[in-house]
Amino acid sequence: MLNLSLVSVNKGSKCLLHNIDLSISPGELSIILGPNGAGKSTLLNCMIGAELKYQGQIQFENIELKQWPIKDLSKKRAVLSQLAGITFPFTALEVVQMGIQEDAIVKDSRILCLDALDKMGVASLAHIAYPLLSGGERQRVQIARAFVQLASSEQGKPQYLFLDEPTSALDLHHQLQLMQQLQTLAKKGLAIVCVLHDLQLAAQYADKIILLKEGNLMGVGKASELLTEANIESLYRVPNHIVAHPSSGRPMVLLK
């Protein structure tokens, strides 16, 4: 489990996060929502150990996060950031192979990587140079790399996947494909934390919604509890109407 207790981040006179109390558990797809500048990426960076200038406590598997060696962390959590620039002409397959752990015991790492590319619908691009791919294709290759990193790590132990706006470069079909895969992985025991801007995707796929406003935790809970007309207007300053999805019963946000 990942536990944050009274976590705050200040940059100069600006408070980016204020006294965040939060727990992330295996088997849940947690989605962080909030407007621009709410502190979503800062919160994610705290969770993955990229933001070390915080006050409070962050315990990962009952050990303070700052005390974890990077190599050990890489076996327990994979990260997909917003910017994953690679300018060298590695092929898509070679980029995914970068996710293989150094001491991994994998019967056939090439098959593992090709399977990850196939799940993301880019197996046909395996031997294409990564810089030649479109933004959406690069995104799917990087997601495949993250999948491979965890698949080649410690099995049978809690693992975590952190994604910062993973759907931003994807078309509608591949957005749904990714969210369905994340939902499936969470059901198999993976702890997944995802920053999104799309309220509809969050409402339909999240096990847990985390609402941030101006660095403060506005609420943690199910979509049906938190995605209310009042909360959405408070967060995004837009009039809206909530209706139930005809199939899932989950909330759908309609803008007035």
Briefly characterize the structure.
Pfam families: ABC_tran. Part of the ABC transporter complex HmuTUV involved in hemin import. Responsible for energy coupling to the transport system. With 256 residues, the protein is an alpha/beta fold.
- Secondary-structure element pattern, one letter each: EEEHEEHEHHHEHEHEEHHEE
Residue-averaged pLDDT: 91
- The assigned structural class equals alpha/beta
Strand order of the largest sheet: 6-7-8-3-9-10
- Strand percent estimate: 25-35%
**How can the largest sheet be summarized?**
6 strands, mixed
Radius of gyration using CA atoms only: 18 Å
Low-pLDDT stretches are: none
Helix percent reads 25-40%
Question: Given the structure, what is the number of helices?
Answer: 9
Number of strands: 12
General form: globular
Straight-line N-to-C gap: 40 Å
Domain ABC transporter: 2-239
Function: Part of the ABC transporter complex HmuTUV involved in hemin import. Responsible for energy coupling to the transport system.
Protein name: Heme ABC transporter ATP-binding protein
GO molecular function: ATP binding
Please render the helix and strand layout as text:
Elements: E1 2-11, E2 14-24, E3 29-33, H1 40-48, E4 55-60, E5 63-64, H2 70-76, E6 77-80, H3 92-97, H4 109-119, H5 135-151, E7 160-164, H6 172-187, E8 191-195, H7 199-205, E9 208-213, E10 216-221, H8 223-226, H9 229-236, E11 240-244, E12 251-255
Parallel strand pairs: 3-8, 3-9, 6-7, 7-8
Antiparallel strand pairs: 1-2, 1-4, 4-5, 9-10, 11-12
Helix pairs in contact: 4-5
Domain ABC transporter: 2-239
Function: Part of the ABC transporter complex HmuTUV involved in hemin import. Responsible for energy coupling to the transport system.
Protein name: Heme ABC transporter ATP-binding protein
